[in-house]
Amino acid sequence: MKLPLAFVVAGIVLVSAGCTSSPGRPKSDSEPLAPDQVVAFTILYKQNCAGCHGVSGSGGAAIALNNPVFLAIADDTTIRRTIENGVPSTAMSTFAQSKGGTLTEKQVEAIVQGIRSWAKSDLSGDTPLPPYTSQTPGNAQKGAEVFRTYCSSCHGSDGRGGSKASSVVDGSYLTLVSDQYLRTIVITGRPELGAPDWRGDVEGRTMSNQEISDVVAWLSSQRPRLPSQPSAVSRLARPNGVAQ
Fold this sequence. Notes:
The protein has 244 residues and is an all-alpha fold. The protein folds into two domains: 38-116, Cytochrome c-like domain (Cytochrome Bc1 Complex, Chain D, domain 2, Orthogonal Bundle), CATH 1.10.760.10; 140-241, Cytochrome Bc1 Complex, Chain D, domain 2 (Orthogonal Bundle). It contains twelve helices and no strands.
């Protein structure tokens, strides 16, 4: 018995529809993206940043990126440059594909804007913010006194640790961080660890920009030197007074 043509066509349509929606078959809009096509901030941050900077930028081995003071002193260009280039001789690696990393320009920008979205506080009415980078070289000798004034109550008079905080002159630690990282921590503190920012080390006595530069110079002078490494003086004589 021959079936009417309309029934044959309808049967073909139904079979085709069944093939495209069969159990276990992925939908066309659910197929995984290639790694360089992912631009969702939450995914990119988790894969590339959270291991050091903590979930949602809350801090970990490295500073908290959701710290309002950090977001106030570090502009988009600074954050982007650090992601793209990394920080030589530290644990912060290069991420931009153009520099040998794994992230495209769009992915780097997605991370920059995602981090910026964490800025919730306006610090414009507070004490004037110190600049992210130093404008003048620091003085290590003066920095030793600055350290005793502002930092010794937690880190000990020689920086080797006290009752409230650990050593900040440990050679292994200083080898892994840059002078800019030290400056950033002095300004922003580590609120996730209970460490105050530049305004709260001594009640009623805010650190000046020069004092910040001086204490960074002193800390830098404690860093073990390899034969190929520049001295603390030459490092701090670079443009902006900070070794990146």
